[in-house]
Design goal:
Elements lengths: L15 E6 L13 H16 L3 E4 L4 H7 L4 E4 L5 H14 L4 E7 L5 E4 L3
Parallel strand pairs: 2-3
Antiparallel strand pairs: 1-4, 4-5
Length: about 120
């Protein structure tokens, strides 16, 4: 909502996420964590929450239509930008106990956003 560019129109993206982990010390296997554990956890969140879901700002007037037509959607308290999606993935992975340093989310081959906490 309230965006002046062409992205003001309803549209979707196929995105790619890179999850960076970091630690002061490695575990007994010489890793920060197992990449397969990161992949399984991130994929579960993405498939359950984001994949084939309409992400929409909570004040968008289209929500009433989506509700009336029994469409799947997720209202967000922020606009569903690449930055916000990177933050969502970051916070989920952090909550799962991973030593997350940063999440980078590519919206296109040349456009991406990163989220990390100070």
């Amino acid at each position: 909502m309230h965006h002046a560019g062409k992205c003001r129109h309803l549209h979707g993206h196929s995105v790619k996420a890179a999850i960076t982990v970091a630690a002061q010390e490695l575990n007994r296997q010489g890793m920060v964590c197992d990449f397969s554990d990161i992949k399984a956890s991130a994929n579960a969140f993405i498939e359950e929450q984001l994949d084939h879901n309409f992400l929409v700002y909570q004040d968008d007037p289209i929500i009433s239509w989506l509700t009336q037509n029994n469409e799947r959607f997720m209202p967000l308290n922020e606009h569903p930008t690449a930055e916000v999606l990177a933050k969502m993935i970051y916070l989920y992975m952090k909550d799962q106990g991973f030593a997350i340093e940063q999440v980078t989310l590519w919206e296109t081959d040349s456009s991406y956003a990163c989220y990390r906490e100070p």
